[in-house]
Amino acid sequence: MTRVLFIGNSYTSVNDLPGMLAAFAKHWVPSTPFTTEAIAPGGATLRSHLRQGIASQRIHEGGWQYVVLQEQSQLGGMHIDGVAFLGHPEALFFPAARQLAAQVTSVGARPLFYMTWSRREDLPTQRLLTDAYARIASELGAVLAPAGVAWERVRRERPELALYDEDGSHPAPAGTYLSACVLFSSIFRQPCPDVPVPFAPVPGDLARYLQRVGSDAALADPLPERVAPLPPLPVLPGLPPGDPLGPARLAGSWRGVLSLYPKAQGMSPALLSLSLETQGAEVFGRARLTMKSQSAEASVSLRVEADTVSFSIRDPSFLEASVGFRAVLKDGILQGVAFAEDPQGGQWYGSWTARPDAP
């Protein structure tokens, strides 16, 4: 009996990748009983799996031959002014991968890293994903299922094939089929047989092509480490020098915009409004943040230090996190930066401005 536990997110659960792999095994190697189980909530990072503990509990219950580890598609992710960037693997991916892989080996199973693919509009990013997964698999002596490499080959050879769902991120049925082929050959160390699975969601000729590409990617020589140098972190929003700032200069109503939430979803810029009053050296009031049909409103207490003011708002609807704000007053305008960390560990950076309401 071969038992495989998948730990990932929607890149694993969409089109039921674990179930498709199990069906392949049943059809192609019927003499080997094969079962799968998945813990794959949407958007999860390996770090969030560690924090929640469910994956670790299932690992320690034992009986697995392989535990498939799939990081969030942006390696944890970083958003700057509403634009998504690939996260630096040393920040979230590698530390969580090392901890989970240690748990896997402690129960006698093998960790298997399921390399994901770049977004449809950002094919060059695949080099960075490939490098990150190859390096951590090599470091830990883990199995590597280079699905992203197979996707890259198909995109170059047959760009008309619909590997992606409409969002340009998640897999269409053909994309899941290709990934399942990579996983099959990575686990069984043999090519996918030249026999399409009868119930496959892709036609026979296409299935044979995807099987061949998936097998080639999985059974190729080990991928070289450092396929591409790790990029420097993108430049984060910063504050300009500010004018002298005292509590009295903040009193009143302010309106402006915040670039933090995903531009791709039409959520940036968001509207920001502040209604502030002072009592001695204290500055307090209400803040409201509105993006699309969602909003967050809270009482705020501002902290003034030299030429900088700071406060925070809890966003329960989208990020499910507190958004921190800092700003300076420049030429009568609040010019600021914002920061949040979502429950999955993704980091969000933004910039904002606010002007006083006309009297």
From TrEMBL:
GO molecular function, one term: hydrolase activity, acting on ester bonds
InterPro entries per the UniProt record, alphabetical: SGNH_hydro_sf
Gene3D superfamilies, sorted: SGNH hydrolase
Protein name: Uncharacterized protein
Species of origin: Stigmatella aurantiaca (strain DW4/3-1)
